[in-house]
Write a structure and sequence with these properties.
Blueprint lengths: L1 H9 L3 H13 L2 H9 L2 H14 L5 H18 L2 H9 L1 H7 L8 H17 L1 H18 L6 H9 L3 H16 L4 H13 L2 H8 L7 H21 L9 H12 L4 H13 L7 H17 L2
């Protein structure tokens, strides 16, 4: 039965996907687990990738992609589906095949699924980040979150922008520790997300979902900054933080060490890809030092 279904899914029709979606929504957890073990989800994601890669897609292909993603969503609406996806990392990596899709509605659905993984469990959160890391390596880019920021900047609909910001919020909010949240948020800030968010604020009154996500971003940022205990200091301003540190060490023995550190950092060429490793290592070492 599952082999016949898998064969049918490899040459999909709207009717095939519609029937499968209905079947999944009405089936038991046991049936869904058998469907997964029979590589049903694997075939769905494989087919989605092929539909995305088509050089000259037909009009019907856009609907096939949407129905295919809808079937994946039905699988992930079950605990068995989520657990199986988390236990098999290849599935989340296959999600990234949709990132190159020109159909924003399809990508919106994929980001909804990745947000669901983030909120489901710590392991699900890890799988979502692995998907972004996989895409970064696939595209040979320097920053794993740049794709998300570019999508947010170029998104043509408010609904898609709200979904992207929701996923970005999930990446930040569901990080375990304060320092992880701050580090991840700073990664986004370094990619100029605050400029995009400021532009989105002018649109937020037209869409309640976007308003909610903007509020979530602000709320958690403010909470984390309060927890860090630097009242009145703009922690998003490198210049403000620099002067605050300089004020702390000036006219003391630490000022010499501070200057030495700055001189070493000045030698790091930001155009060199190795500089990413240097800065990341420096950040981790400083973090460890502050926890002593």
């Amino acid at each position: 039965d599952f082999k016949l279904q898998a064969r049918a899914l490899r040459t999909p029709t709207l009717s095939t996907y519609s029937n499968l979606k209905r079947k999944i929504s009405r089936s038991s957890e046991e049936w869904i687990l058998e469907f997964l073990k029979g590589n049903g989800l694997g075939v769905l994601l494989e087919t989605l990738g092929k539909l995305t890669e088509k050089q000259s897609p037909r009009f019907v292909d856009a609907f096939l992609q949407l129905e295919c993603v809808a079937c994946v969503r039905e699988v992930m609406n079950s605990q068995s589906g989520l657990d199986y996806i988390i236990d098999n990392p290849d599935f989340t990596r296959k999600f990234t095949s949709a990132f190159d899709n020109n159909n924003a509605t399809v990508k919106k659905q994929i980001f909804d699924l990745l947000s669901a993984l983030c909120s489901y469990s710590k392991s699900g959160y890890g799988r979502a980040l692995e998907a972004l890391d996989h895409y970064k390596e696939l595209k040979h880019t320097r920053y794993r979150f740049k794709f998300l920021v570019d999508e947010l900047k170029d998104a043509e609909t408010i609904e898609y922008q709200a979904t992207l910001l929701a996923f970005i919020n999930c990446i930040i909010v569901y990080a375990d520790k304060l320092e992880d949240r701050v580090r991840i948020r700073n990664d986004f800030i370094g990619l100029k997300i605050l400029e995009i968010i400021n532009k989105l604020r002018k649109l937020d009154q037209t869409d309640p979902d976007l308003t909610t996500q903007l509020d979530v971003f602000d709320q958690y940022q403010n909470n984390d900054e309060e927890e860090l205990g630097h009242q009145g200091l703009d922690l998003n301003s490198p210049l403000d933080v620099f002067y605050a540190v300089h004020k702390q060490v000036s006219d003391g023995p630490q000022e010499i060490s501070f200057l030495s550190i700055l001189r070493h950092l000045l030698q790091v060429d930001s155009a060199d890809p190795l500089s990413d490793v240097i800065w990341d290592t420096t950040e981790k070492l400083v973090l460890c030092a502050t926890l002593l």
